[in-house]
Design goal:
CATH topology of the largest domain in chain A: Cytochrome C Oxidase, Chain A
Number of domains of chain B: 1
CATH class of the largest domain in chain A: Mainly Alpha
Shape of chain B: elongated
Shape of chain A: globular
Mean pLDDT of chain B: 92
Helix content of chain B: over 70%
Number of helices of chain B: 6
CATH class of chain B: Mainly Alpha
Low-confidence stretches of chain A: 1-12, 541-550, 555-567, 577-582
Radius of gyration of chain A: 24 Å
Oligomer: heterodimer
Largest sheet of chain A: none
Radius of gyration of chain B: 20 Å
Helix content of chain A: 55-70%
Order of helices and strands of chain B: HHHHHH
Number of strands of chain B: 0
CATH superfamily of chain B: Cytochrome c oxidase, subunit III, four-helix bundle
Structural class of chain A: mainly alpha
Number of domains of chain A: 2
Number of strands of chain A: 0
Largest sheet of chain B: none
Strand content of chain B: under 5%
Strand content of chain A: under 5%
Chain lengths: 582, 215
Amino acid sequence: MSDATIDVTRGAGAPSYLSAGHRIRSWLLTTDHKRIAILYFAAITVFFLIGGAAATLMRMELFTPGADVVSADGYNKLFTLHGVIMVWFFLVPSIPTTLGNFVLPLAIGARDVAFPRLNLLSWYLTVAGGLLVLTSLLAGGVDTGWTFYTPYSSLYSNSYVTLAAMGVFVAGFGTIATGLNFIVTVHTQRTPGLTWGRLPLFVWAHYATSIIIVLGTPALAAALLMVVAERLFGLGLLDPARGGDPIIFQHVFWFYSHPAVYIMLLPGMGVVTEIITCFARRRVFGYPMMVAALLAIAVVSFFVWGHHMFVSGQSLYASLIFSFLSFVIAVPSAIKVFNWTATLYGGHITFESPMLYAMGFVGLFTLGGLSGLFLASVPIDVHVHDTYFVVAHFHYIMVGGTVAAFFAGLHFWWPKITGRTYPEAMAKAAAILMFLGFNFTFAPQFVLGYMGMPRRYHVYLDQFQVWHAASSLGAVLLAVAYILPVFYLGWSLVRGRPAGDDPWSATGLEWQTASPPPEHNFARLPIVREKPYAYHEHDEHPQEREATTHRAQGTGRTPGEARADGASGDGPRADDREEARE
Amino acid sequence: MSRVTSPGAEPNEPFLSWQRQREAATFGLWIFLASEVVFFGALIVAYGAHRFLYSAAFETAGAETNIWYGSINTAILLTSSATMAVAAWAAKAGLKRTVLIGLSLTAALGFAFLVLKGFEYREDIHEHLVPGSPAFPLAPAQTQIFFSYYWAMTGVHAIHLTIGIGAVLWIAFVVLTDRTDWTRSGTLHGLALYWHLIDVVWIVLYPLLYLAGRG
C-alpha cells in the first residue's frame, strides 16, 4: 500500500468523524472520543437546562420577601435539585468530558484515549446516574440540600434521598472512569517528541484534575454509602442515638467535595491558558510554575476540607490548621492569575469572543478566590457561615469561573469540533452580557450575606428586598446570555462558513488536523520538536496572523505546509503497528 | 503444552504494540486500586475513630463475631490468591491448561468464601446481631456501631468479591476461546491485581472485625 493511498483514506481527505456513520447506533455504541464528547455535550446541556430552570424558579420566588411562587417545602426541593444537578451532572463533567474528551487526545497527537470502551461506559454511567436523580425529582423530590447532611438526610427526611444518592453514586463511577482514562492516556499515548515539559497546559490541567477525581470521588461514594446503608438497612454509623457520628459524614463528604471544587476549576484554568496565549500571541509566562501550581492545587486541595466545618463542633486547633492550609492553597491559585497577566504583557492582544470569555474568567475567578480568603479565616467565616456571602463566593468560582471557561473553550474549539464558524459579533455580545449579568446577579449576594441573609430560605425580611430584586433582575440578563449561544451556535451548524483547519492560527497539535477531524485524528503522527505556545518567536506582528508565519508545535513547519500533502505531520504513519515483540 | 500463538490477534485500539497495551492496562488497574483504597480507607478511618471513642463497646461486640468462619475464610482467600498468581504467571509462559485450572480454582475458592460468609450471615441474623433490630442482644448502644461497620465492610467486600468471581469466569472464557492474545495482553496480570486487592482488604478487615475483643 503506497503512502498516497493511505493519505486519501486516512488523511486530510478522509471523511470526518461526523460522517463516519449516520445511524443512531453509530453514535450510541461509538468508541470514538470525539463522538463521546458530543454525547456528553448533549447530556450536560439537558442537565444544565433543568438545573437552570430550578434556579429561575428560585430567583422568581426571591423577588419579593413573602412566599409567592413555591412553598417552603417546594423551595427546599428546588435548591436541592439545582445543587445536585448543577454540581454532579453539569459542573464536574462539563469541561473534562466534553472539551477534554474531544481535545485532549488531539492535543497529544493520539488516535484515541487509552480505553475507548471504558470512555463510552463512563457516559452511560453518567446518564444512568442523572436518570436516577431525575426519577427522584419526578417521584417527589429531595429536600436535604445538595450536601445530604446527616442526621437530616439519614433519619428525618421523608423525601427520595436514597434514589438521588444512588444516582450521584453511579455517576461518580463514570467520573472515576474518565479520570483514570485521562491519566493513562497522557502517560501512554503521547506522540513522539511530546515530552512532559512540552505538554500544553490544557493537558496538564486535565492530568491534575484526573488525580483529584480518582482519589477524591471514592470518598464521596463512601459517604453516600453510609447514608444509604442507614436509610435502607438501619445501620447506625451516623445515628447519634446509638453513638454514631453525623460529623463523620461531613468529614468524608468534604474530603471529596472540597477537592471537587478544583475538579470543576482546574480544567477551566487549562482552557483559559490556551486561549490567552493564542490571542496575546505570547508564549505562556512561567510554564514550569504553571505546571507546579496545578499539581500543588491538586495535592493541597485534599487538606483543606475542614474549612467547611468551622461551626460544626470541630476542634478549634483543627480549624486553625485548616484555615492556614486554605490560605496556602491561595498561593498557587494566585500564581496562575499573575502568570496569565504576565503572559498578556507585551502581547498583541485581540479580543475575539473566546478571549472575552477567558478574560471574564480571570476577573471573576479572582473575585471568587479573594472572597474565599475571607471565608478561610475562622472569625469571618463564623460570622457569614451559611449566608448568601458563601453562596456568592462559590458561584463566583463555579459559575463565573468554570462556566465562563466552558463557554470560552466551546467558542475556541467550536470551529474544530464542527468545522464551522459562528457569528462573531453575536458571540462577543453574549460574552459581555454574561460578564455583566453574572456580576449583576451575584455581587448583591455578597452584600446580602454580610448583612445576615441566610441561605436556603424562601422568605426574608423587607430590608433585604432591594438586593434580592437586583439579583433576580441580573439573573434575567444571565439567562439571556446563556440562551443566546444556543441560537447562534445552532445557526452556525447549518449556515456557518467552513472554518478551515486553524482559524485562530493557534499552535496546538489539535489545529494541525482537519476541521472536523477525521475518525483517526492524524494520518501521520506529528513529531514535536519544541515547547508549546511558540507564538511570539515567529509572529511578532498581529497583521501577519493571516499569513500564519508562526510554526505549529508538531511539525516545525507552518500548518498549511504541513497539510499540503494530505498528511498531518512528518512522523510515522499513525496506523503502523510496531512488530509485536516481548 | 505448546505456547499459544495467534498471529491474527492484534492489540486493542488505540494501541500499536502489545507492550504498550500491557503497560497501560496494568497502570490503569493500579490507578483503579488507588481509588479503591480511598473508598475502603474512608470506612476504615471512620472505624478507627469510633473504636478510639468506644473501645470497651467495640471489644464486647468484637467478641461476638464468629472467629471460625472468619479464620477459615481468611485461609480460603489467601489460597485463592496463590492460585490466581499461578494463573497470571502461567499466562506469561503461554500455558493454557495451567491458566484455566488456576482460574477455575480461584473462582471456586472465591465462591466457597461467599457460601461460608452466607452461613455466617445467617447465624448473625439468627442471633439478632443486626443494628436497629429490637432484639439486638448487646449493650451499650455503641456495640451497634461495631456491627454497623461489620455489615457495611463485609458486605462491600462481598460485592467486590462477587464482581471478581464474574471477572475471573469471563477471563477464563476469553482464554478458552483465544479472543485475544492473552499471553501478551497483560489481561491476566490486571485481573490478578484486582483479585489481590480484594484479598488485601480482607487481610485488614479480619483483625479489625474478628480479632478485636479477643486479646
